[in-house]
């Protein structure tokens, strides 16, 4: 996909995200919005996946370690064709296959996640299996920045370097806000580049709010350098909805009627401009 098409797809996914969270009356909307560009880039440009054959042995694997932001993954899977139209509208309803965290009952989801700090460990195991089976698929893991306080992440980081897992890419959604406030007030990680470099990872920074930079960074990865890869995606919590951007209370919040209409209007205007310019 061209960059403009990816931006348009991300905006369409953003609009759909607002719709389903408003309808379900639940969701981690701030973090959903901050990671949506990265998810769109992964599923529409970076990863080798096929909605018609979701269990292809050669497919790339994706793990949403920050599982509470599953709504962003749901809309991405729907737009990529993994989920039939209408299923997403059952979010929050009795009997729905969709829950507040990823589960393998949903087409396209590889692993049950959401207990923070565990996704990278699972990703290390999957990447090791690819090496052992001499297969070329890649494994991508998306973590939150608030999640970096979990010790299991650093055990996984050491193992990934030990086994030279250059087929593993971890992404940190660096939006600076977690449920209890600014990450630097809760458990500071401003030394994130030095920390992961010391663990033996190749570390790259990217503007997670800028689709062009996201694509450029992913395409710059050397999958044969014997080092696991960390991309620090500098993002904005609540990205794309003016009154949500950088506001901690939208970590887990549902817009009221007026806020919903304003958010949809903002996004729809951007979609219109992208479609006709």
Automatic annotation (TrEMBL):
<comment type="similarity">
    <text>Belongs to the transketolase family.</text>
</comment>
<dbReference type="Pfam" id="PF00456">
    <property type="entry name" value="Transketolase_N"/>
</dbReference>
<feature type="domain" description="Transketolase N-terminal">
    <location>
        <begin position="18"/>
        <end position="257"/>
    </location>
</feature>
<protein>
    <submittedName>
        <fullName>Transketolase</fullName>
        <ecNumber>2.2.1.1</ecNumber>
    </submittedName>
</protein>
<keyword id="KW-0786">Thiamine pyrophosphate</keyword>
<dbReference type="GO" id="GO:0004802">
    <property type="term" value="F:transketolase activity"/>
</dbReference>
<dbReference type="InterPro" id="IPR029061">
    <property type="entry name" value="THDP-binding"/>
</dbReference>
<dbReference type="InterPro" id="IPR005474">
    <property type="entry name" value="Transketolase_N"/>
</dbReference>
<keyword id="KW-0808">Transferase</keyword>
């Amino acid at each position: 996909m061209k960059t403009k098409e990816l931006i348009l797809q991300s905006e369409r996914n953003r609009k759909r995200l607002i719709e389903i969270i408003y309808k379900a009356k639940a969701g981690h909307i701030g973090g959903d919005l901050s990671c949506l560009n990265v998810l769109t880039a992964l599923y529409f440009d970076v990863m080798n996946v096929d909605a018609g054959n979701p269990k292809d042995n050669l497919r790339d694997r994706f793990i949403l370690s920050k599982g509470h932001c599953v709504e962003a993954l749901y809309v991405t899977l729907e737009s990529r064709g993994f989920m039939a139209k209408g299923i997403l509208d059952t979010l929050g309803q009795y009997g729905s296959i969709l829950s507040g965290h990823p589960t393998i009952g949903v087409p396209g989801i590889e692993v049950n996640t959401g207990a923070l700090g565990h996704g990278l460990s699972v990703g290390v195991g999957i990447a090791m299996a690819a090496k052992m089976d001499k297969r070329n698929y890649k494994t991508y893991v998306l973590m939150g920045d608030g999640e970096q306080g979990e010790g299991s992440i650093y055990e996984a980081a050491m193992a990934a370097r030990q086994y030279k897992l250059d087929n593993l890419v971890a992404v940190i959604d660096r939006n600076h806000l977690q449920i209890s406030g600014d990450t630097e007030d809760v458990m500071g990680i401003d030394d994130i580049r030095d920390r992961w470099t010391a663990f033996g990872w190749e570390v790259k920074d990217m503007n997670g709010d800028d689709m062009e930079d996201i694509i450029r960074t992913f395409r710059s990865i050397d999958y044969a350098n014997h080092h696991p890869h960390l991309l620090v995606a500098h993002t904005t919590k609540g990205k794309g909805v003016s009154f949500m951007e950088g506001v901690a209370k939208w970590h887990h919040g549902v817009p009221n009627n007026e806020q919903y209409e304003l958010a949809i209007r903002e996004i729809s205007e951007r979609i219109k401009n992208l479609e006709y310019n």
